[in-house]
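Regression test case RT-17, inverse folding.

Input:
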């Protein structure tokens, strides 16, 4: 955004009844609008025709981040529950592995590896589905409103793919480490009693 002196020079040019100001991102519209209004001008931004899209974008950025955190916590609890259930169901199998010479660390590694692979596959499928939904919504909005500039509003998440994948794997490891360790420490003698 240009400084105030530059804006005054642009707008107070003798023959200019209006001036066009181009901004780099959608997020710059509100501050520029506020600044121009405080200087006594009556700015108009075409983007306000699509105010609902700006509101939706801000909703997705700020409000849904809490929901993502909640979903991650629930996902971690589901991972813990699934592993503990799997240990209980496969208890005799784990004991047999240990009787055949498998060490505690090997059993722990098997459960961690299973969790990591399930997380990678789930994250890939979720990312693909999310990308399809967002691109479909952008295409619908472009068709419905006759404007193809919606790609800037519905920003793709592909630049964050590796961060999302890494976050999912770290969450899975944190959720799986204690149950996997518990599976590795399973006592064969006590296991056959149940």
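Golden output:
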């Amino acid at each position: 955004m240009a400084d105030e002196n530059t804006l005054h020079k642009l707008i107070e040019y003798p023959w200019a009844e209006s001036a066009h100001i181009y901004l780099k991102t959608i997020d710059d519209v509100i501050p520029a609008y506020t600044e121009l209004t405080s200087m006594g001008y009556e700015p108009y931004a075409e983007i306000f025709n699509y105010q609902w899209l700006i509101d939706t974008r801000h909703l997705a950025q700020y409000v849904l981040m809490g929901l993502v955190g909640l979903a991650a916590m629930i996902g971690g609890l589901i991972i813990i529950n699934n592993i503990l259930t799997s240990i209980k169901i496969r208890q005799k199998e784990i004991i047999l592995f240990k009787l055949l010479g498998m060490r505690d660390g090997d059993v722990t590694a098997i459960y961690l590896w299973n969790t990591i692979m399930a997380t990678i596959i789930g994250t890939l499928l979720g990312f693909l589905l999310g990308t399809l939904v967002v691109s479909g919504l952008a295409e619908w909005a472009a068709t419905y409103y006759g404007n193809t500039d919606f790609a800037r509003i519905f920003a793709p998440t592909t630049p964050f793919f590796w961060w999302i994948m890494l976050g999912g794997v770290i969450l899975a490891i944190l959720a799986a480490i204690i149950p996997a360790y518990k599976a590795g420490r399973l006592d064969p003698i006590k296991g056959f009693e149940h």
